[in-house]
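user: can you give me the structure for this one chain? tokens are fine.
assistant: on it. calling the predictor now.
[tool input]
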Amino acid sequence: MRTRLHALLLLLPAAACTADAPPPEPASIQSADDVTDAVLEAARPDGNWLTYGGNYAEDRFSTLGEITRDNVDQLGLAWTYDIELRGGVEATPLVVGNIMYISSPWSVVHAIDTRTGERLWRHDPGVPRIRGRLACCGVVNRGVALYEGKVIVGTIDGRLIALDAESGDVVWEALTIDPNEAYTITGAVRIVQGLAIIGNGGAEYGVRGYVSAYDADNGELVWRTYTVPGNPADGFESEALEMAAETWNGEWWVAGGGGTAWDSIIYDPDLDLVYVGTGNGSPWSRHLRSPGGGDNLFLASILALRPQTGEYVWHFQTTPGDHWDYTAVQPMTLADLEFDGRMRRVIMQAPKNGFFYVLDAETGEFLSGQEYIVQNWAEGLDLETGRPTDRPEAVHAEVWTLITPAALGGHNWQPQSFNPETGLMYLPIQEGWVERSEPPDWVYTDLEIEDHSFGPRVNNVGHESRYGARDDAGFLVAWDPQAQEARWTVPLLGYWNGGTMTTTTGLVFQGGGDGRFVAYDAENGDQLWQVSTGLGILGGPVTYLVDGRQHVTVAAGWGGSRGRSGAPYGEAANYEQRGRVFTFVLGGTGEMPEPRRKRPVSVPAVAADLPADETSLASGEELYRQYCRHCHGTGGGSEGAMPNLQRATDIVHRNFEDIVLGGSREPQGMPSYEGLIDAEQLRLIQAYVVSQARETLADAEEEEAGGAN
């Protein structure tokens, strides 16, 4: 495999291997057969969008020039495409030639004609819907990768699947996890030198993180690099892990250790380094995870690896001994910036912990860091090393302590974009607060996954949390990475919003949790154009050419960790959140479709036959909390991506047993709970949900009467 790739590189024109080569003409890349590492390394193929972050630097910057500050207000709808599924749409579409490839909830992949929005094919990998109970933050998928006629996607149940780009047929499939462990895949695959590189999630359930590389031609495993050390008695896989083990204490391996690489992976072809962001510990609490302290490498770190072997080169830990779920898996961007009077190749990241970091991409040297959002867990960063100084009161134990950022961080997975012409990074950020303490009697719970007897979200984090202590807020900020300061900030309607994309014509595009898709002036943040979709937007926009015309696409559909049961904002709060793709072009005349409006809360006719005594409702509540709350919200009242059971129709209630035990709606994402609960227990759950609908209606009537007075 390596010999073939090297031969391909040698056959290319010399200019194709230089950093200064002009971008290839859009017409030169017309299908997924042409998407090779050599093309991606050459320059920015702007007529297409070939990889998750737009290019290897993942700066999401486009040099297409048709849409400008002066005419962006003439954007109109070209077409829409219904994804149909609930669960949150977080994907960045890829575009090559006249075909768009996009993933959606449950790792379903769609191929769409970019001229018409018509479906070319759809591939459902058949993830068992019961496996969704292991997805802490939704059954989402952030994107596919293209390689030599193949579309490669990771699945919620831990598989890597290569599809024929023309037909959608399976070319190869590889299982990347032990299916008896609580791993999931939600991140986008990256292609580097003929390798498909992917990590995984699951640290909340007690797993050991790693990143793997598979031969993109046949799916064979080439290397695997663990991100935290295992049981010393079993030996260490590398000298780097042996070194890391010296920073751990106790028997951390019993709960896996965590450090999952669930999102950001990027590659610098000039330095020939792969950078991997790693996640939180398992459990979250450092007291419980590593009694006696320690940095717990390589949690909450950026790792630089050799792409051919996965060998460790350097690391930088953003949150030593992480105690707050402050992962460093957030997006990373490569750029050339001037520091100390000379140009440096840098890697930039705004991880969860609230600090923006600029590192030397070759060595990992800390160049600068500064708060990009309010934080109260650290006194600040050491100016030489970048190491934070924890505030003692933030490393809480049995005392409730107010902390910010909250577990979702000051910045999460939502893509950032960097405009080398303005020198600014466009960041979707959020201010959130949480009160935390540690239960004194906490013990790790081993999940019995094989027989599916595990709870929907077994609390293996080692923390108890209370939200709502202060109001949360969301912002779009233009961050100057050299001055380490905000150039401008735009307040957003809610906390959880979409990623960004920027252009050479001075635009920044971003979608919001309120359903608006907006174009801002990259210089000052002025709003230049907006459209309301009715669907919360989370993923990153893209721009590309269709028949010589510049198009802009964004995928919408509320969900994910914040939106699984929490409501979207503004106008989007009125609608059911099924996924949809929106594409715009100058002069577009398409009519925006209105999403399906939410039904009112109601008490079904079957309520008369359900138990209503206090004992039955208490039992129903306990069962509901164990099996249903994570998706359907407190009391069945989810206003997010999943159905609000208080709004369920009479038909749903008449078929409750068939849906929950019979699995009649499994294709839509609702798994069968046969074998987990019986018919009588289900009846108690149904009675509890109906009782909650009654309470909601009573509260509404009381509020209305109070307002009338």
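assistant: here you go. The first strand starts at residue 61 and ends at 62. The two ends are 78 Å apart (CA to CA).
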